[in-house]
């Protein structure tokens, strides 16, 4: 029988990927990080048995969690990424010419190590604007002195070291760490996996209470549970659906040409939610 990777998100229901071989496996102080060569999706990274990214579809997640925030902000110069150890979110953020400095706070150096070795096209770790810190992101954002224009929460599922990324206190710290026109985006799980509903509800309730504007938006990532993935966009004032955002997107045609998923139509269309998704956070 051929080698297979299986991730189950409800009893025996889940994802199956054909494998060629194991490329990397390391149990860090926080989690088990593995990289496989697959038969279809290029190299695949898993953490504690959950898919984080593959070479073939990683652009969807990284473009959507980054550019929605970056175009919503009028002039993003300082960006904070919590998590994001594979480097893909930082790569997308750094495509914006206004950016002067990016802090990426990743708790587990092993994730960065694995990405540099087996996903060389994902990260932009040699960019002089990028500063990588190996710290707890919750503790870091709690003590920010110089605020950020954009904060991106690129964490894993709400278990282990990422569990605190779904709590209201954490989002209060983020709010305090943003500039007056600050923007935040975060990954908020699959609307098809009912076990995640309490965490999703918790996040959007907190964002609604803390931020002037908060909205869910969707993207479609083949190797994430059930393929549909939700994200949050919260701001201190700018509506991600405003005409000003349209102008900013249209003023960057060369950047848009370089992308594989995100564009003007996707930006605005991603905020259209099916009724069953709306009910999760109402």
UniProtKB/TrEMBL annotation:
Q: Which residues form the PABS domain?
A: 2-236
Residues binding spermidine are 62, 86
Q: Which GO terms describe its molecular function?
A: spermidine synthase activity
- Which catalytic residues are annotated? 154 (proton acceptor)
List the catalysed reactions.
S-adenosyl 3-(methylsulfanyl)propylamine + putrescine = S-methyl-5'-thioadenosine + spermidine + H(+)
What biological-process GO terms show up in the record? spermidine biosynthetic process
Q: Which CDD domains match?
A: AdoMet_MTases
In terms of SUPFAM superfamilies, this protein maps to: S-adenosyl-L-methionine-dependent methyltransferases (SSF53335)
UniProtKB keywords: Polyamine biosynthesis, Spermidine biosynthesis, Transferase
Transferase as a keyword of this entry, yes or no, is yes
* Entry EC no(s): 2.5.1.16
What the protein does comes down to: Catalyzes the irreversible transfer of a propylamine group from the amino donor S-adenosylmethioninamine (decarboxy-AdoMet) to putrescine (1,4-diaminobutane) to yield spermidine.
Quaternary organization: Homodimer or homotetramer.
The UniProt family comment states: Belongs to the spermidine/spermine synthase family.
Protein name (record): Polyamine aminopropyltransferase
Organism this protein belongs to: Rhodohalobacter barkolensis
Q: Which gene encodes it?
A: speE
């Amino acid at each position: 029988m051929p080698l297979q990777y299986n991730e189950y998100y409800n009893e025996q229901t889940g994802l199956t990927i054909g494998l060629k071989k194991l490329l990397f496996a390391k149990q860090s102080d926080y989690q088990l990080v593995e990289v496989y060569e697959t038969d279809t999706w290029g190299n695949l990274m898993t953490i504690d048995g959950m898919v984080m990214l593959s070479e073939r579809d990683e652009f969807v997640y990284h473009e959507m969690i980054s550019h929605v925030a970056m175009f919503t902000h009028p002039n993003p110069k300082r960006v904070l990424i919590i998590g994001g150890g594979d480097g893909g979110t930082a790569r997308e953020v750094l495509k914006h010419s206004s950016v002067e400095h990016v802090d990426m706070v990743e708790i587990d150096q092993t994730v960065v190590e694995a990405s540099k070795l087996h996903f060389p096209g994902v990260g932009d770790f040699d960019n002089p604007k990028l500063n990588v810190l190996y710290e707890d992101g919750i503790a870091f954002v709690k003590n920010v002195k110089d605020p950020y224009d954009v904060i991106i929460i690129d964490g894993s599922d709400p278990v282990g070291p990422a569990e605190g990324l779904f709590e209201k206190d954490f989002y209060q710290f983020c709010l305090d760490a943003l500039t007056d026109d600050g923007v935040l985006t975060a990954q908020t799980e699959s609307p098809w996996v009912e076990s995640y509903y309490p965490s999703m509800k918790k996040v959007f309730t907190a964002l609604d209470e803390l931020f002037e504007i908060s909205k869910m938006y969707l993207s479609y990532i083949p190797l994430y549970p059930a393929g549909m993935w939700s994200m949050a966009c919260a701001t201190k004032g700018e509506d991600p659906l405003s005409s000003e955002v349209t102008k900013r997107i249209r003023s960057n045609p060369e950047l848009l040409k370089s992308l594989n998923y995100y564009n003007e139509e996707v930006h605005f269309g991603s905020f259209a939610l099916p009724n069953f998704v709306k009910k999760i956070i109402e």
